[in-house]
Amino acid sequence: MERSRWTVGTGDAVARVTRVLGDHERGENPERRYRLDFPADAPALDAATGATLDDWTVTVPESTRLARVRLAFPSDHLAIRLPGPVLGDALADAADGDRTAAKTVLNAVPNPESLPFLAGFVLDPPGVARLLGAVTAASQRAADAVHAVRYPVVRHAAVARVGLATGTRRAFESFAASLDDIDDIGDVDVSDALSALVSVAPDWPTARARLRRLDYTPGGLAERDDGRFHAVALSRIVRGDAGRERAREYVRRHLDTREAYGSAKRRALDADYWDRGREWRDALAAAATESDDDFAFALANALHWTGEVARTDARFPELLHAAAADVAEAIGLGAVSARAEYARLLAVGHRHRSARNHDRAVAAFDRAQALAADHDALDAWDPLYSRSVVRANQYASSGRDARAVELVEDAIDALAEYDVPGGRRRESVAHLRGQKREAEASLEGDDPGVRRVHLEAAREHYERAGLSRSVARVDRKLDRADRDAAEKGRAPVERGERGTAGVGPEYDPEPVGSADPGVIEDDSFPGR
What is the CATH number assigned to the segment(s) 379-487? Predict the structure, then answer.
């Protein structure tokens, strides 16, 4: 639904915007008018780009897609972006499913990443979700951009008081579910989003207050995700000024067990990979009355393994690993601290990779590989594989497809020198081969038939690696190859029914993503 009134700014630098409806929005020379009011200090006009201002009424002509008004308040500046008649109508029409309007919106905004925040002032949250569904269906670039920012968008909607703001638990969960329904941007999980909200808060009291505004409690959230939220809260406490003593108080208040620490610890040490986070959280509950070192040992493992088995683009695994490294280092467990730091660097790299910050992603993976070189229990091949995927994607996205092919071939050769577990080797090599064939397809731009052969092969490799978004992207390229062939008077080759890829576990379902790391094959892990 399109808004007619909204508020911009915080503190004393606040403006209320009211859209003035009337016949001026139609006709041969349509324009949009907006009335500005100020509940606190009155500002001075600093600049108006693409609009005129008279007695605090802003007029945006048809020729302007997005006007910018900059106001100077006594203590701050405030920039307001106001859509003209073309963009304003397109935002509403795209939210209603108009594909042409969706393309108009994409041509008007500075970049797709900014769209949900800009549109949040003009549309209500359900309208923003529908708009994002429309633009991501219309553009692969928009789909990749919104995929990269989907969790920051949900976090923003949870805490914002103006613009894209949900305000209530029901509205927040409805908005998150609406984004999750958009196939082109990947999963959006409410529990992951709220854990990420904790991870970016400056301290635990601030995080708890933000959750309370939406009527969430730590216990209620932990019940939703098998106790994982307690580990996230503890990591925020550990990384703040409160430290381990406050963490022990939290455990005593929120985690309950009658099991002896010794038996809980043994069960955690012997747990299967995917169960270790939960088992170490149980051991942590039993360690609440144990010595400082025993409690810290259980805490470090609970935090690390909760982050280790998380499969998400949300940011909280980084916080879990960082807190685990701090706790382990404090009690002299250098190997445990190194493993947690290694996992943190991988998580940082994957986050930057998902956001297409290629150089930062590669830097994080390089640091992880250097750390692995100093610790035999850490896998040097994993960051090597991930950095290769990122760098190849960077080359391909900048038109250097031949360089991407060369790099992937070198990466496959390099992986052959490592003792990679069988399942991981198959997935990683399939992913790299998919990248290679996709880049080779781009090198055959003038021949849709040859291009199609490479794309079909790439699709098979991506399916084998379980990368469903990569499969969907290649499907779109195959459709384009068919259209190109038809335009050249060639009959498209019958390819059968492609269908959809089976959705398996994906560390990051991007074309630059790595496959699920799976179960660690050896017995080397923190706590053994």
Answer: 1.25.40
